[in-house]
Design goal:
The complex is a heterodimer of chains A (about 270) and B (about 450). Chain A has about 270 residues and is α/β, with parallel strands linked by helices. In chain A, about 40% of the residues lie in helices and about 10% in strands. The two termini of chain A are about 15 Å apart. Chain B is elongated, with a radius of gyration of 28 Å. The chains are: A alpha/beta (about 270), B mainly alpha (about 450). Chain A: This is Cysteine-rich domain-containing protein.
């Protein structure tokens, strides 16, 4: 098997621009995707899919910086705009037109909040991107049968769902797997937050009876029932919160938390 | 033939309407305390939204039972108002059932009216039951559900029942009188027909009862109208403009402060010329706070939100922070805004704000500051918000609770640097490393090392 795989050299914008080339799409990795050990695996899975289908993509590499989203949600409009204006300068200098990202927070900010500051791009979330690849037949999900009979429940990210009305794309992606898709009672527009948005990720929760991620994990576990199951997410913060919740409930042996890109990469035989 | 009764009616109606206009002007003044914001864009989209969400009650139908019951009361309100127009004309000109010339249409209208009036009574009884007997949590609990909001809600429901009973009294007595005269009945009255003998058959007393029912109904309506500006029930008017002016862009898009943009651009590029600041009437530049400390820092739309809220608690019941026992309640944010607005600006006829501290609600640590922030809403509430938009999504009248929470939070951070320490650490990380965590920016691309994909052949 060893000889059947090739090393990926992830193209950066700097290299592409030096060669006078332009990518079809810029993959905005985001801070979690770049630094968080768990979410780096999602970044890698998504790049494997990009490589597999032969999309001409690039990343900013070390030229990427925080979108400023957590600062904005925490009320620090000044720091947000500093980050945004600096990022927009980089993106505009490279003449970027289309951006894909695996982070709903980056997605929402670049798509909705950068235009007021001079950054106008076509921005899509990786769930929509994967949905398109599946619809176009570029990703066939031949290995989807491996998921047969497995229960998967999708946890809506607030910044994908309510914030941008994207509910079906991640579900369509999961539907391509041969799995048993089950919905939590609070789903889609009524989905319950994982507890990390609005900069909560970076602070202790305010005093209360319970942590929000525990409330949500209990709902997910009840929906999945007994036996092996998967909580599918499409957001780095949800990933952390739900994983912590599952660990807190001591269910990490039977219930796994995966990003939709990881599940597709697995089904496509791209990663193990 | 205009008689003394008609003149008295005219005076009563003029007083009632005049008092209402006077109160509306006060409320308008309060709302205009807010900052200006231009929401005159996309009129056709706004009209569509108003038809769907306000007239069509679209968002109510997320919860079926209250949606159907509320629909009875709402349609009842709209249709019975047609009869109120008739009552007004009859009252002024001394006519009797002036619209009867409409013939079959009039019959149909009166028929529907009676059915709706009965359904309104049924719905209001069930609503009272849910509030006071089964004590539905979103209606019965929460620090913001103080004595006044609870009394207000019950008062409205009971008034609506009494008004409907007055309407039936008027119809039943009128029906019996026509029967005794052997005349033709204008209109069709299925419910009153069933109770036609309820008040006996003495024409004199029937006439008095008929007149009393009529006067009670119309005075009741005028009084009710003047009660509205003090009540959560004001939503029956405000829902329409509030939905018209609702946020049209994606919920995830938060406002951008252009003053900050100019500041940053000037910092990055010394040749950048920011536009001249706006001047006030005396020619002094208007210095605007960053974020909101008090009601005048919010926009008029955010203040209008506060007058539109009917305190149904859907927002609070779906708030992840509230569900898990945190102090934050989006409904409280909106109700506090209204209370503070009336404390600072004008207050309508009935006004009884009671402070959480005075009520002994220990968890709400308000101070004596005469501002919305801290005087009513505490930082603990603001920092519990996950900005998940569940409150905004759930509101049947498109109130944007989140925008107010965010503006208050911005004031804490931008004007007071009063963020929690760990949030400040996150800010420092973004400033220094370009990431919210303490990682070196030079390691940002390390994830790409040793990554393989299967070869195609």
């Amino acid at each position: 098997m060893e000889e059947n795989k090739r090393l990926v050299k992830v193209p950066t914008m700097a290299e592409m621009a030096a060669n006078g080339e332009e990518p079809e799409v810029l993959f905005w990795v985001g801070c979690a995707g770049s630094f968080d050990d768990r979410y780096k695996r999602v970044t890698r899975a998504f790049v494997q899919i990009l490589e597999h289908v032969g999309v001409k993509y690039a990343v900013l590499g070390t030229e990427e910086s925080c979108t400023g989203e957590p600062a904005k949600r925490a009320g620090n409009e000044f720091l947000f705009q500093m980050q945004a204006i600096t990022n927009i300068e980089v993106l505009n200098a490279y003449n970027i037109k289309k951006i894909v990202t695996a982070c709903p927070h980056c997605f929402n900010t670049i798509k909705n909040e950068y235009p007021d500051l001079g950054g106008n791009y076509e921005v899509i979330h990786h769930s929509t991107f994967l949905q398109q690849l599946i619809n176009e037949g570029k990703v066939k999900v031949q290995g989807g049968e491996a998921f047969k009979g497995k229960r998967i429940t999708f946890h809506d990210s607030c910044y994908l769902g309510r914030a941008n009305d994207i509910y079906e794309a991640p579900r369509d992606v999961l539907a391509a797997l041969d799995a048993d898709l089950v919905e939590m009672k609070r789903s889609r527009a009524n989905g319950l937050c994982c507890g990390a948005g609005g900069a909560q990720m970076f602070k202790e929760p305010e005093p209360g009876k319970k942590d929000i991620n525990i409330e949500r994990t209990e709902e997910a576990l009840a929906t999945l029932g007994t036996g092996n199951g998967v909580i599918a997410t499409a957001c780095p913060f949800c990933m952390v919160m739900m994983s912590d919740g599952v660990k807190n409930k001591e269910q990490e042996e039977s219930v796994k938390v995966f990003d939709i890109a990881e599940l597709i990469a697995q089904a496509e035989g791209l990663s193990k | 033939m205009i008689q003394l009764e008609n003149i008295i009616f005219l005076i009563v109606a003029a007083l009632g309407i005049g008092l209402f206009v006077w109160q509306i002007r006060k409320i308008r003044k309060n709302v205009l305390m807010g900052r200006d914001v231009d929401l005159s864009d996309n009129p056709s989209e706004r009209i569509n939204k108003t038809l769907l969400v306000a007239f069509g009650q679209q968002k109510m139908f997320k919860r079926m039972l209250p949606a159907v019951l509320h629909l009875f009361v709402y349609v009842g309100f709209l249709v019975i108002n047609i009869e109120v127009i008739e009552i007004l004309i009859d009252g002024v000109f001394g006519t009797h059932r002036v619209l009867a010339f409409l013939g079959p249409l009039y019959s149909a209208l009166m028929f529907i009216n009676e059915i709706l009036a009965a359904l309104v009574i049924v719905a209001c009884v069930i609503f009272l039951w849910r509030r006071n007997v089964t004590k539905l949590p979103r209606l019965a609990t929460g620090v913001e559900m103080r004595a006044w909001p609870k009394l207000d809600a019950n008062f409205i429901l009971i008034t609506e029942i009494v008004l409907m009973l007055a309407l039936f009294t008027f119809n039943i007595a009128g029906l019996k009188l026509v029967q005794l005269d052997g005349g033709e009945v204008a209109g069709s009255y299925p419910i009153s027909q069933m109770f036609v003998n309820f008040f006996g058959d003495n024409p004199n007393s029937l006439h008095i009862i008929e007149r009393a029912g009529w006067w009670f109904h119309i005075i009741g309506i005028l009084a009710f109208m003047n009660y509205l500006p003090s009540s959560k029930h004001f939503h029956i008017i405000m829902a329409f403009p509030n939905v018209y002016y609702s946020k049209l862009w994606p919920k995830g898009k938060f406002t951008t402060n252009p003053a900050i943009t100019h500041e940053i651009k000037a910092m990055l590029d010394p040749s950048y010329q920011p536009p001249a600041p706006e001047m006030d009437a005396e020619g002094n530049p208007i210095v605007q706070r960053f974020g909101a400390k008090d009601v005048e820092d919010l926009t008029w739309k955010q203040l209008m939100d506060a007058y539109t809220c009917t305190e149904c608690g859907r927002c609070t019941s779906v708030c992840p922070a509230n569900i898990t026992g945190k102090l934050l309640s989006p409904r409280k944010i909106v109700m506090d805004t209204r209370d503070r607005m009336e404390e600072k600006g004008e207050s309508p006829a009935i006004f009884a704000p009671n402070h959480y501290k005075e009520l002994g609600v220990e968890r709400v640590q308000t101070t004596d500051e005469k501002t919305l922030l801290r005087g009513y809403i505490t930082p603990e509430e603001l920092w519990a918000c996950t900005t998940c938009n569940a409150c905004v999504e759930s509101c049947p009248v498109n109130i944007d609770q989140l925008s107010t929470i965010m503006d208050l939070r911005r004031y804490l951070v931008l004007e007071e640097s009063a963020a929690p320490a760990s949030v400040n650490a996150m800010f420092t990380n973004i400033e220094n490393n370009g990431a919210p965590w303490a990682f070196s920016p030079s390691d940002r691309f390390n994830w790409s090392e040793d990554l393989y994909v299967p070869s195609k052949n």
